[in-house]
Amino acid sequence: METKEKRLVNNTIIFTIGSLGSKFIQFLLVPLYTYTLTAAQFGITEILLTAVNLLIPVFSISIADGLLRFGLDKTLRRENVLKSAFIISILGTILSIISIPIFSLYPTLSEWMVYFIIILNLRMYRDVFAIQLKVEGKNTLFACDSMIYTFVLSLASIVFLVPFSLGISGYFFAYIVSNGISIFFILFFGGVWKSFTSGRFEKQLMIQLLKYSAPMILNGIAWWITNASDRFMLQWFMDDRAVGLYGVVAKLPLLIGTFTGVFNQAWIISAVEEFEEENEEWFYQKVFHQYYAALFLSVSVFLLLLQPFMKVYVSPSFYEAWQYAPFLLLSSVVSGIAAFMTGFYVAQKKNLNIIYTTIAGAFANILLNAMFIPMLGVLGASIATFLSWFVIAIYRMKDVENFACFPLDKKVFWYLFLLCIQTITMTFLPILGIVFSVVLIPYFFYQEQEFLAVLFDKGRKKVCSFKKSKR
After folding, report:
1. Which of 21, 201, 268, 381 is most deeply packed, by most CB within 10 A?
2. Which residues cross the membrane (predicted)?
3. Which residue spans within 176-334 are E strands per DSSP?
């Protein structure tokens, strides 16, 4: 039992060291962007990177998902899995170049086409090679790569945007340089190049990979619709400035999303490894309770500190965007819960269930954005994002309860109800929201005092252990 938890905790710590540090630096880059780019310029960068995120699963055939699942399969040679995944990625590059005339039909992409194609393909290969590090159990190197990528991105952004004042071009240059250096590090310092050259192409394995990964294209597109289509709809109904304001506040849930992201990277590995082991029901329930407790506590505190934080975080021209943030922070909670459920699907190779639930949320997102953006503007996009993720979370919790040994903890719904009240009051009645927050946060801490005591004790032991190792 302790081995299961220890393995999960160790993987989470390693992924957190890399991702939390890198995401935190990206989080700190937002003030730089708000002082060197106008809201409209920042909106253009959001549109291009959002389009990249949409098309990566299309042109890569979501092969990174297949590489992770089949690479962890002990009956297969992981070097051969990597070889097949790389060949599929090359085909994706060829298709992306052929598709340039289609991309050019969209004015924003047409103007910045060279940057768009380069970033799209660099991201595609970086995703595949980085996943291979996790497949090979090189989690420390995975974390190092994440930190190197962010350090280079930060340095390049400062150089290109401040002394050289390159504007949007400088923003994209920084992304190209950081992705290129990251790929070089993974291949030659992470040992992935050696794995690639020692792998053999197996036609049957490639077919299996495609059968698993191809349906995930729909999941990738649906995920994009839920997370990012609002940028395009804001540009359609409003303008680039609205996209820029939304893009800035969309960075606020970044640290929350980083926690859920790195945890779920480790959680998926544990869910796969512990599948069909004894006492897995107890293990799953305990992990989920600690996970959602940390989510609710952190977001509730963040909501209370939101307005003063925004005054020092962004330039005055972006400050008005604070009012769009509460619902996005709330959406990070329900999206985190939905992401946790993914571990059960991956463990049982029920990837179609992931797709169905994500598509349901995508349809909800499109309809809600079309309803709310014309009425409420940028705030409407924030509300639509929360509601669509709520649909996905509820769908997945009910679905997982049907096929896994995982009875739902009803306490999560009570916590969610309270956090919804805090979000609504902070958005529309800030003074009342502050009063409610001052009452709610101590209540959360009181309810989770046992979990917090355990967390504090484990943290204290880690610090003591670290000090002893230094002596």
Report:
1. 381
2. 12-35, 47-68, 80-103, 109-125, 146-166, 172-193, 205-225, 245-270, 291-310, 322-347, 354-372, 378-395, 416-445
3. none
Question: What's the pLDDT tens digit per position in 415-457?
Answer: 999 999 999 999 999 999 999 999 999 999 998 887 777 666 6
Mean pLDDT of 453-462: 63
Contact 62, 54 (CB under 8 A): no
Residues contacting 350, CB < 8 A, separation 6+: 344, 403
400 against 302, higher pLDDT: 302
Q: Could you tell me the pTM of the whole model?
A: 0.78
Cβ atoms of residues 143 and 14 within 8 Å: yes
34 phi/psi in degrees, rounded to 5: -70, -20
Q: Mind giving me the DSSP string for 51-69?
A: HHHHHHHHHTTTHHHHHHH
- d(Cα 183, Cα 260) in Å, to the nearest integer? 25
Compute the distance between CA of residue 396 and CA of residue 363 in angstroms, rounded to an integer: 16
Angle ∠(265,291,17) on CA atoms, nearest 5? 45
Residue count of the chain, please give it: 471
From CA 211, how far away is CA 188, in angstroms rounded?
30
Q: Which SS3 state, helix, strand or coil, does residue 471 take?
A: coil
Q: Where are the alpha helices (DSSP H) in 275-377?
A: 280-313, 325-347, 351-376
77, 194 contact by CB (below 8 A):
no
The answer to whether 404 and 344 are in contact (CB under 8 A) is yes
Residues 6+ apart with CB under 8 A from 226: 358, 361, 362, 365, 385, 388, 389, 392
3-state class percentages of the chain: helix first, strand second, coil last, to nearest 5: 85, 0, 15
Concatenate the DSSP letters of all residues of 348-361 into one string. TT-HHHHHHHHHHH
Q: Which residues contact 291 (CB under 8 A, 6 or more apart)?
A: 263, 267, 336, 340
Query: What pLDDT does residue 97 have?
Result: 97
